[in-house]
Amino acid sequence: MAIGSSPLLLLENEARALLTRLARVRSFALHETMVPAAGLSLDAQVAIERYLASGRRALRGLVDAYIAWLRGPAARTASAAEAQRRFTFLRLRFNAVLSQFDIFADVVTQRSESQTGVWLAGLDVVAADALEMPGYYDPPPVACYLDRGHGAAIRRARTRLPGGGENPVAVIRVPRERMVGSGIASSLVHEVGHQGAALLDLVDSLRPALHAMQRGERRQRAIWACWERWISEIVADLWAVARIGVAASTGLLSVVSLPRVFVFRVRFDDPHPTPWIRVRLSCAVGDALYPDQQWGRLSRLWEDFYPTTGLDPAHRALIYDLDAAIPAFVDLLVSHRPPALRGRSLGGALGTPDRRPERLRALFAGWSMRPAHMRRASPALVFAALGQARADNKLSPERESHMLGDLLTYWALRATLDRSEICATPAHPDARAVTRQRAIVS
């Protein structure tokens, strides 16, 4: 910044400096290195690049317009404070565009990590499969990345990004410490559930029903007010149980296994249910969707881990009241018929017969004899079956990790070859070439 310059010249130079820095923000396709199998889905790549390119063009236009204003007659009659005010807002917009670039850079950069990048591409496939609801909505692209900590999160597609603009891709952050095992599916599919619930407007459709239950004595109103406050996270938990069965509940148990003070803490300003109640609720949802004795056993195991003895009497009474209300709440939840499901109940639309424990056990027994058959099943179903086997002590953690690592690699490679086939197939495809491609991953 040339301090001795006139105010307008000084600000023009600063604006031109923004343009030079903006020009160095290149497409990810030009500077991110990764093996093809680690790449984002074609839809996600295109959506991200188009969104960021559009933002850069818009910003460049704003900077050019500002420079033109500085050089025109209007700036000569304006005060230095007015010129500075305009530049300040321009720079804020510039920083917002860079922040959006960094959001997606976190997703793309990890694809260059050896093995991890390919596994992330495999998780993209699992997430996309768990989000499928044919006939109800057009799912957005999904992109996964890892971060520290034990909790997952999602930046949903079609929501506002920092600085403005609509997010073109569902970006799911999953905890690095959960790679690789069926526990990763619990975190992943829970976040997918947030996206699915938003696409079906499930939370807003449930709130009036929950609000209507807040009648009668004060204690009863307080309990149903808690369910209403926590409904967003509860619906995501329901989605996870529906998609991957008991693996959702065992994964949740692992995530919320915290010191007692946190497990029993009831916070009315937190969208997350009290952990002790949340695990019990997950098991009750599982039993409603896929009846089996395992849910009761898991729920009792959770009680053994965290007995209510020693709690303050008033606190324990609240916990008991919430626990006693679970059956009625679960019945309302699974029987709810939101407009988006066109007459179907939530439990009927999300629950599927192939996720029943007996079916998952039969699938795992068959796959143990013919492991290659797992590759023909949907990724979410595979995670559900392996999670069921873990819960039944039929699968060791070591073998599970090895199997899932191989499967994530396979799903990533298959998706890559499918994309390549679509892009490279001529008007009259050579069937033998397609057969050779499929043989690589079979």
Quick overview:
By secondary structure, the protein is mostly helical. Helices cover 66% and strands 3% of the residues. It has 20 helices and 3 strands.
What does it look like?
By secondary structure, the protein is mostly helical. Among the domains are: 7-111, no CATH class; 201-351, no CATH class. It has helices at residues 7-23, 28-31, 42-71, 73-77, 80-109, 116-131, 183-200, 202-212, 218-244, 246-255, 260-263, 275-289, 293-305, 313-324, 326-335, 346-350, 357-369, 379-391, 397-424, 431-441, and strands at residues 142-147, 153-155, 170-175. The protein has a 3-stranded mixed sheet, with helices on both faces. The longest helix has 30 residues, at 42-71. The N and C termini lie far apart (61 Å). The relative contact order is 0.09. Mean pLDDT is 88; it is low at 431-442.
Report strand %.
under 5%
Catalogue the unreliable spans: 431-442
Q: pLDDT average, as an integer?
A: 88
Strand numbers in spatial order across the main sheet: 1-3-2
Order of helices and strands: HHHHHHEEEHHHHHHHHHHHHHH
Query: How many strands?
Result: 3
Distance between the termini: 61 Å
Sheet of most strands: 3 strands, mixed
By secondary-structure content and strand pairing, the structural class works out as mainly alpha
Which descriptor suits the 3D outline?
Answer: globular
Helix count, per DSSP?
A: 20
Structural Rg? 26 Å
Describe the protein's topology.
Layout: H1 7-23, H2 28-31, H3 42-71, H4 73-77, H5 80-109, H6 116-131, E1 142-147, E2 153-155, E3 170-175, H7 183-200, H8 202-212, H9 218-244, H10 246-255, H11 260-263, H12 275-289, H13 293-305, H14 313-324, H15 326-335, H16 346-350, H17 357-369, H18 379-391, H19 397-424, H20 431-441
Parallel strand pairs: 1-3
Antiparallel strand pairs: 2-3
Helix pairs in contact: 1-3, 1-5, 3-5, 6-7, 6-19, 7-9, 7-10, 8-9, 9-10, 9-12, 10-12, 10-18, 12-13, 12-15, 17-18, 18-19, 19-20
